[in-house]
Design goal:
This protein is an all-alpha fold. Helices cover 55% and strands 0% of the residues. It has one domain. It is built from 5 helices and no strands.
Length: 95
């Protein structure tokens, strides 16, 4: 079954197919477009969920869509980076 078709018709089946392809390192079997969309969407939603739990801000205080381009948000230079960048969570994982 075609990967994009499977994504639209059987999301669970698509996730299982993608997990198997990742596990077996079958790069050509990966649905890169949908994997990227899911990763960005899930990451943004997880960030919103975390911010809601850790602040008293209402949901309406957060944008519906991420206002940053992925490459800019991940950049270690330029406008998206500073020593105290709001979204820098590296210290959360340091022992």
């Amino acid at each position: 079954m075609d990967k994009p078709f499977l994504y639209d018709q059987d999301f669970y089946g698509w996730t299982q197919q993608q997990a198997k392809a990742l596990e077996q390192r079958l790069v050509m079997e990966l649905d890169w477009q949908h994997l990227q969309e899911e990763a960005l969407l899930d990451g943004f939603e997880a960030g919103i969920d975390l911010a809601l739990r850790e602040t008293n801000l209402p949901l309406r205080a957060f944008p519906e869509h991420c206002p940053y381009l992925f490459d800019n948000a991940m950049s270690t230079t330029g406008y998206a980076y500073a020593d105290n960048f709001l979204c820098d969570t590296r210290q959360d994982w340091e022992g």
